Amino acid sequence: MSDSLATLAAPCSHAVEIKKSRFLAQAAPASSPEAAMAFVDSLRGNGGGHHCWAYRIGQAYRFNDDGEPSSSAGKPILAAIDGQGFNRAVVVVTRWFGGIKLGVGGLIRAYGGTATQCLQQAARQPIVHATRMALHCDFAQWSLLEGRIRDRDITIEKTTYGALAVEAILAVPSGQESDLTHLVANATQGRGRLAVLPGNCP
Hints:
By secondary structure, this protein is an alpha+beta fold. The protein has helices at 33-42, 74-83, 103-120, 139-151, 177-187, and strands spanning 6-8, 12-18, 21-29, 50-57, 60-64, 89-96, 124-126, 130-137, 155-161, 166-173, 193-196.
């Protein structure tokens, strides 16, 4: 799996018919395993006989054959996600059986191929590695800093307003940590505090 990965910019789908069986791949971005499973669960009521799926979120991954022969569906879908260089992504391939058995090899090609074709046409959004940092400053300093922080494509994940000060949790794109440190030091005349938090963004 490459270090240069992307997630999906938006959900997408792709349908094919193979020997009278219909296969529908539906893919979506997923920021967590819980979000991936919520997407899987949302598609269970569409009437297909098998809802096979896989997700990849950093080092976390799962796949499921949903009644198809072992490793004939979920694993090829995961291989498609990895092969197309996606992360933080979930793919569900639903099969409507058309009466002709495909065999294990045919199923592997059908599920993996449908997922691959779906992802090949998906709009990609590069994943920017980021460092999570906590910023502590007073209200006047925050009003000065907030706009400058956003101008640098730094994500403000959470802002907490205390009685005397503000604490903001920031996702800082890799390589911008030093620039942010200088910005905070200059804007607050050295009084603002910036600390790296555990659990950096993948």
